[in-house]
Amino acid sequence: MRFNGNRAKLFFTFLKIGAFTFGGGYAMIPIIQREVTQRHRWVTDDEMLEMLAISESTPGPISINAATFIGYRVAGFWGSVLATLGVVLPSFIIITIIALFLRRFNEYKIVRYAFNGIRAGVAALVIKAFAVMSKQCPKNYISYAFAAAGFIAVTFFNFSAILIIALGGAAGLLVFLRSAKIRDNKK
Amino acid sequence: MIYLELFWVFFKIGLFTFGGGYAMIPFIQQEVIAKGWLSQNELINFAAVSESTPGPFAVNIATYIGVAKGGLPGGIFATFGVVLPSFIVILIVTRFYLGFKNSKLVKGVMWGIKPVAIGLIGAASFSIAYSVFIVKWGGFVSLITYPFICSAVIFVFSLALLYKRKSPILAIGVSAAAGVAFGYLGETLKFYK
């Protein structure tokens, strides 16, 4: 592998994206878009939308998906490795430093009080995220039932979350293929 | 072997996390808190740290737990584990994009996973709200306590800020300041022992 031209640019561009996108998820899309479609013209706006669509159907955070996808398009396998490494490195360094100190901070009373307040704020953050995601739920009773079943199984029966996702996927496939068959028969 | 264990736990979490950061909280509770690697309160504290630092929640929490349990190599193994599934999946999908896009299999599976992932975020909200608000006072669950009222005030105010499209970092900063103020107020008024 040669570390030159596009590969170096990929690494440093995604290093920048990794260092300046707080909160993750959808908040980073405009920043990624500006860097890769306008500044460097690595991919078109259409390809960017394509990437977001893929991101919705694959596991993992959007920034990792975007780095892998764009890195591969621009410079093949090593391009995707360097872009992904670049986007992960800033949070890795920052969190490593925090991990070495956070527990020690807890000895101070003022820090404990601050985190008492912060935990209530986090409850608000997660509930807001839930409200935003709920709007994206497909509007039909089967989907509502799936969401409710996932919630109840994990909350009240401590069902394995991995199993729940796997079952959801399998059940979704069954329902989807059945309804596709019904649609085809009606034609 | 702690390094391989860290890698494997976060590889599983990375492979099954759809629907963004908070959907992984139930996975963290079942795979990481159950092992005693982290407490529920530490998880909630860390969610705030993750919101206030760059990078996605998945990478941040993998690095944090990895470093806490296995130093720098632990952090590398855990982070590598959480990133690897999406890296591999995207590489495969990029090569076979058209097949992927038109695949009934993928559409069907995602049709089922999407609502379930929303259910998981619901479960995360419920468990966090429970551990923030439900204060056990001498064995009894009591709602009219000083910590409960403080938490409720901060919660409502933070939610209002978020709905006014203020940044999460501002909401966390305000919550921290309010927490300190309520803490010292409670101490002065002798609400704590």
The largest β sheet of chain A comes out as: none
Largest interface, Cβ cutoff 8 Å = A-B, 98 and 108 residues
Shape of chain B: globular
Shape descriptor of chain A reads flat
| Terminal-residue CA separation of chain A | 54 Å
Helix run count of chain A: 7
Number of helices of chain B: 8
User: Strand-residue fraction of chain A?
Assistant: under 5%
β-strand amount of chain B: under 5%
Mean pLDDT of chain B: 86
Can you give the mean pLDDT of chain A?
Answer: 85
H/E series of chain A: HHHHHHH
Strand order of the largest sheet of chain B: 1-2
CA radius of gyration of chain B is 20 Å
Spans of chain A of at least 5 consecutive residues whose pLDDT stays below 50 are: none
Instruction: Estimate nothing, just give the exact number of structural domains of chain A.
Output: 3
Low-confidence stretches of chain B: none
What series of H and E elements makes up the topology of chain B?
Answer: HHHHHHEEHH
Number of strands of chain A: 0
Short description:
Chain A has helices spanning 5-20, 29-39, 45-56, 62-105, 109-134, 141-157, 161-186. By secondary structure, chain A is mainly α.
